[in-house]
Amino acid sequence: MYQVDEQIVHPMHGAGVIEEIIEKKINGVSRLYYVIKLSIGGMTVMVPVDSAEEIGIRNLIGVDRADQILSMFGTVEIDMTTNWNKRYRENVMRIKSGDMEEVVKVIKGLLVRERDHGLSTGERKMLLTAKQILISEVVLVKGLTYDAVEREILMQVDAVQVDAVTV
Questions:
Q1: What is the model's pLDDT at position 19?
Q2: Kindly report the CA angle at 101 between 70 and 123, in degrees rounded to 5?
């Protein structure tokens, strides 16, 4: 069980700090909830304590892993289908996995697609969400600003000749 003031990551919302653990009765059922203040945007999320693992709540990555993740933007290969619906569903699954490598693939793939073809409103929102998830964690782990991390990502993606695989 996580404790108050512990930094954690929610796979769909990003990194934050557990502000409190409260008992709340919803639909006649009393449960314990983590109240998580997200580091980006100041949003608060409540997660049932007994479902936290199933949802994918996890500890922050370390500094070394954060460096590895950031350096992946220059080397990770992207594989995105040209079919919008399929690509969208695949990207949602990558984000929900909570795996930062998968989130990097989403971000890089959408940045390349934005540069080459433009993005729909839905994919633009997904790109923003994926960047916030990744950047919120790196900001907490490395003590950098949101803008500094975002600039690093964009520089790496722009510096690489991308041979995106389309299916």
A1: 97
A2: 95
